[in-house]
């Protein structure tokens, strides 16, 4: 009788413990659940093994070879990594990516936070405003790049407006110091809606009574934001920060259709370098090495996130 | 006292109105590129248009012309095949795996689930080269299966399904099993109908991911016949197609996304807030 009360997970141990008084269920019944379970997982598992696990380890493996497009390769140890350290083009791409991220992340998060706060405070037309702000998010980066090329061009929208005021023209995509901020603005336009929605959800979760209490205590709008809203919004804000940082290091599509990495490699980012090495120079081993660096960066960002979230008192 | 309250209230109203005004301006800036695109796409060839002047008449000819341009119709079909097939297969395999992970016991279940999730940490671009080598070795370059199959291993979909199914009461499944239903029947008759809301959300996201995807189609389907719409747009750009036609092509490419968005906006908004799907 005691057997019946046992939690199902420990069934195995109990059976080993001694001669069973109840007859064992036939083997095919006991195996039925594990086998059906595995069968249900099998299609996805096969996909993961072939198209996730193998390529992930393959990327690391290839970074130690001089893999050619023909499929021939030799193991060359850490030569690819040594080459990265000496490669001025790689240094340029790393710097471009960091500058891009340094512009993109604060800008996007601030816009997302600002619009989230505004959406939270307006009393009418909230759904309409939210829809308009979120609309670019459902489009593709290629689409955003094409439209914004026209906005930025010498005979494009902004210079057309500047020209009316007898200003400009400004060569947004042709100037080496303007190109990365201009590209960052395009990605921000396309992507901020997502972070905005996360932050709106975060704001909604803040109890009204906290804000009312602060109001009664005579806190002004800025104090209410800094002392009540901001601390409570921190987890959401941090999530958004990490998501956008990881996204910034993966920028490619807009650059491909807007600048091609130029002018003079001013927008030649990490993924663009990977693509170039792989599909223009067909140096697969070296391109895979750049991929491993990208993975390492994303991993570090995620680990920092974990570290900070563990410290979170909540 | 009452005067003061009235003053405070008025100031409050003024602040709210100015915040609303600011938000309206930001919204306007956000949608300006769309409006610009539509006006240019509908401008007759050779006539003066934005940013210099509004066109004196509007025409559909850019749209009809782009559809007769080499490849455009084919790219649109390719994008639909890529997005819809991927969506259907992911919905099926992810819900099956999610059901097993949520409600069945088998050795290594949790380890398997976490190993699926761990792959989220590896950015797709970092695996681009091995992906390409693998698919080209298997003979998948410039084929639909080469385009679709590698994108099906989707841990976000599996995890979402698992979380949702886990919260369904066990009694439902047990009752069906006692009545003699096979696991497959339980899945088909109970799990799928009960997970309709989450399946719909997932369908929207998977469709958008694939429709907007660029880097993978760019490298795996390079022949003009097999390009998807995003890659085709980039091709048109590099071929210096007239701006009005390029804008027409871009406008057409975004229609399915906007239709999906308009239909299920509230849905998308809620699921981002709840699940963090991206």
TrEMBL record, chain A:
Transmembrane regions listed in the UniProt entry: 35-54, 98-119, 131-151, 188-206, 227-249, 287-308
- Map out region (Disordered) in residue numbers: 1-21
Keywords noted in UniProt: Cell membrane, Membrane, Transmembrane, Transmembrane helix, Transport
Q: Does the keyword Membrane apply?
A: yes
Origin, by domain of life?
Answer: Bacteria
Q: Does the keyword Membrane apply?
A: yes
What subcellular locations does the record give? Cell membrane
Membrane topology, record value? Multi-pass membrane protein
Which InterPro entries does this UniProt record tie to the protein?
ABC_transporter_permease (IPR051393), MetI-like (IPR000515), MetI-like_sf (IPR035906)
State the Gene3D superfamilies in the record.
MetI-like (1.10.3720.10)
The terms describing its cellular component in GO are: plasma membrane
What Gene Ontology terms for biological process does this UniProt record contain?
transmembrane transport
What residues does the ABC transmembrane type-1 domain cover?
94-305
Family designation = Belongs to the binding-protein-dependent transport system permease family.
Q: Which PANTHER family match?
A: ABC TRANSPORTER PERMEASE PROTEIN, INNER MEMBRANE ABC TRANSPORTER PERMEASE PROTEIN YCJO
Record-given protein name:
Sugar ABC transporter permease
Annotated organism of origin: Jiangella anatolica
Automatic annotation (TrEMBL), chain B:
Pfam families noted in UniProt: BPD_transp_1
GO biological process per UniProt: transmembrane transport
Among Gene3D superfamilies, the record links this protein to:
MetI-like
List the signal peptide residues.
Answer: none
Q: Where is the ABC transmembrane type-1 domain?
A: 76-264
Question: SUPFAM superfamilies, per this entry?
Answer: MetI-like (SSF161098)
Which protein is depicted? ABC transporter permease
Q: Which organism is it from?
A: Jiangella anatolica
Q: What is the lineage of its organism?
A: Bacteria, Bacillati, Actinomycetota, Actinomycetes, Jiangellales
């Amino acid at each position: 009788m005691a057997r019946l009360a046992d939690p199902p997970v420990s069934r195995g141990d109990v059976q080993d413990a001694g001669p069973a008084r109840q007859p064992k269920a036939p083997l095919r019944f006991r195996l039925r659940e594990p086998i059906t379970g595995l069968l249900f997982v099998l299609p996805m598992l096969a996909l993961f093994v072939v198209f996730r696990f193998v390529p992930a380890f393959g990327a690391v493996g290839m970074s130690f070879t001089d893999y050619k497009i023909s499929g021939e390769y030799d193991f060359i140890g850490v030569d690819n990594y040594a080459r990265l350290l000496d490669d001025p083009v790689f240094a340029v791409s790393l710097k471009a990516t960091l500058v891009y991220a340094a512009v993109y992340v604060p800008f996007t998060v601030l816009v997302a936070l600002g619009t989230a706060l505004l959406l939270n405070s307006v009393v009418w037309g909230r759904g309409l405003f939210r829809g308009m702000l979120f609309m670019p998010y459902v489009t593709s980066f290629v689409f955003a790049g094409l439209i914004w090329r026209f906005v930025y061009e010498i005979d494009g929208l902004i210079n057309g407006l500047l020209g009316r005021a007898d200003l400009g023209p400004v060569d947004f995509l042709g100037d080496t110091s303007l190109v990365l901020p201009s590209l960052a603005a395009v990605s921000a336009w396309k992507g901020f809606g997502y972070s905005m929605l996360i932050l709106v959800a975060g704001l909604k979760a803040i109890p009204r009574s906290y804000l009312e209490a602060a109001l009664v205590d005579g806190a002004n709008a800025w104090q209410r934001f800094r002392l009540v809203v901001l601390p409570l919004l921190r987890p959401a804000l941090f999530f958004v920060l990490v998501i956008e940082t990881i996204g910034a290091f993966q920028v490619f599509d807009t650059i491909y259709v807007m600048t091609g990495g130029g002018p003079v490699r001013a927008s030649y980012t990490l993924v663009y370098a990977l693509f170039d090495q792989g599909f223009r120079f067909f140096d697969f081993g070296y391109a895979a090495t750049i991929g491993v660096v990208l993975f390492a960066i994303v991993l570090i960002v995620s680990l920092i996130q974990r570290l900070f979230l563990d410290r979170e008192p909540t | 006292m009452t005067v003061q309250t009235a003053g405070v209230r008025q100031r409050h109203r003024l602040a709210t109105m100015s915040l609303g005004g600011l938000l309206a301006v930001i919204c306007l800036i956000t949608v300006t590129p769309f409006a610009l695109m539509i006006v240019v796409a509908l401008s007759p060839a050779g006539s003066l248009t934005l940013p210099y002047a509004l066109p004196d008449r509007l025409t559909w000819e850019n749209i009809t012309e782009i559809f007769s341009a080499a490849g455009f119709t084919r790219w649109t079909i390719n994008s639909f095949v890529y997005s819809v097939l991927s969506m259907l297969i992911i919905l099926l395999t992810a819900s099956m795996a999610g059901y097993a992970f949520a409600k069945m016991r088998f050795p290594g279940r949790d380890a398997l689930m976490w190993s699926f999730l761990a792959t989220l940490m590896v950015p797709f671009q970092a695996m681009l080269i091995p992906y390409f080598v693998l698919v080209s070795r298997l003979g998948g370059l410039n084929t639909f299966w080469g385009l679709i199959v590698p994108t099906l291993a989707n841990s976000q979909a599996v995890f979402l399904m698992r979380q949702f199914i886990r919260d369904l009461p066990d009694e439902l499944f047990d009752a069906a099993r006692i009545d003699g239903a096979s696991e497959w029947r339980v899945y088909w008759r109970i799990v799928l109908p009960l997970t309709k809301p989450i399946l719909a959300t997932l369908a929207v996201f998977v469709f958008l991911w694939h429709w907007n995807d660029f880097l993978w189609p760019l490298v795996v389907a390079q022949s003009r016949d097999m390009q998807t719409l995003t890659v085709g747009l980039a091709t048109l750009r590099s071929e210096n197609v007239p701006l009005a036609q390029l804008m027409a092509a871009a406008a057409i490419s975004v229609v399915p996304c906007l239709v999906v968005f308009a239909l299920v906006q509230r849905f998308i908004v809620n699921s981002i807030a709840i699940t963090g799907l991206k």
